[in-house]
């Protein structure tokens, strides 16, 4: 799995965390975003309430879930703007252009500030993406990789901006990915190769190359989804 703080991995056996991640995927497949209350969720997963809270805290730190006091726990990054009322005003071009403006500089900053733990998390994502058995699983790992890169900047405001952008993607970009690639386990092997080039530039602490590779990756994604235009 992707572990932004790699030194904590031993505290969280893969079996429990993997089971919870699978539960998130299955919940999304049903068209739902809200998780059940903790008593029911702990029973369904077969873990204690305390153990469940530890796992949820890990996923919340990754941006995989967020909690709203009084409303419950939701899958995905925290929504900082009212997505139901604003999402219709954002086109796919809006989203892609925003990604092109934000994510290449994030990759450059990550190249200057990333730690060994950050790189281990990115490598874990890359390895799992190659083994993804469904598009939903691949998209979840893709999201984690891009967020791990954003998190490696050590800039909480930039991470918040990324999370806000990511929350909008599912209303437009994610739907297009599903339309184009359907049930394929991922959008072609060369997309994984593009990710590897970004991570390698970050590993080499080369901000110029990291920014260039991220921009090239996003342009390539645009071409796959909409054709060259």
From TrEMBL:
* Family matches, as InterPro entries: GntR_C, TF_FadR/GntR_C, Tscrpt_reg_HTH_GntR, WH-like_DNA-bd_sf, WH_DNA-bd_sf
Q: Which segments does the entry list as coiled coil?
A: none
SUPFAM superfamilies xref list: GntR ligand-binding domain-like, Winged helix' DNA-binding domain
**Does the keyword field hold DNA-binding?**
yes
A molecular-function term among this protein's GO annotations = DNA-binding transcription factor activity
Q: Where is the HTH gntR-type domain?
A: 10-78
Tree of life domain: Bacteria
Q: Which UniProt keywords apply?
A: DNA-binding, Transcription, Transcription regulation
> Mind telling me what this protein is named?
DNA-binding FadR family transcriptional regulator
Q: Which organism is it from?
A: Novosphingobium sediminicola
């Amino acid at each position: 799995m992707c572990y932004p703080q790699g030194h904590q991995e031993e505290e969280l056996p893969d079996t429990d965390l993997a089971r919870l991640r699978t539960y998130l995927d299955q919940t999304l497949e049903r068209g739902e975003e809200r998780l059940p209350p903790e008593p029911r969720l702990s029973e369904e997963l077969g873990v204690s309430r305390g153990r469940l809270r530890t796992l949820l805290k890990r996923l919340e730190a990754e941006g995989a879930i967020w909690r709203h006091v009084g409303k419950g726990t939701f899958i995905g990054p925290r929504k900082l703007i009212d997505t139901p009322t604003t999402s219709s005003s954002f086109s796919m071009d809006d989203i892609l252009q925003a990604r092109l403006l934000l994510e290449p500089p994030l990759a450059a900053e990550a190249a200057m500030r990333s730690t060994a733990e950050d790189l281990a998390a990115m490598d874990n994502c890359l390895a799992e993406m190659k083994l993804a058995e469904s598009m939903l699983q691949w998209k979840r790992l893709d999201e984690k990789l891009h967020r791990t890169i954003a998190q490696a900047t050590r800039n909480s405001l930039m991470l918040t901006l990324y999370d806000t952008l990511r929350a909008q993607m599912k209303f437009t970009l994610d739907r297009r990915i599903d339309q184009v690639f359907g049930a394929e386990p991922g959008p072609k092997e060369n997309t994984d190769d593009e990710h590897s080039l970004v991570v390698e530039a970050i590993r080499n602490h080369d901000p110029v190359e990291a920014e260039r590779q991220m921009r090239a990756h996003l342009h390539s994604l645009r071409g796959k989804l909409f054709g060259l235009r």
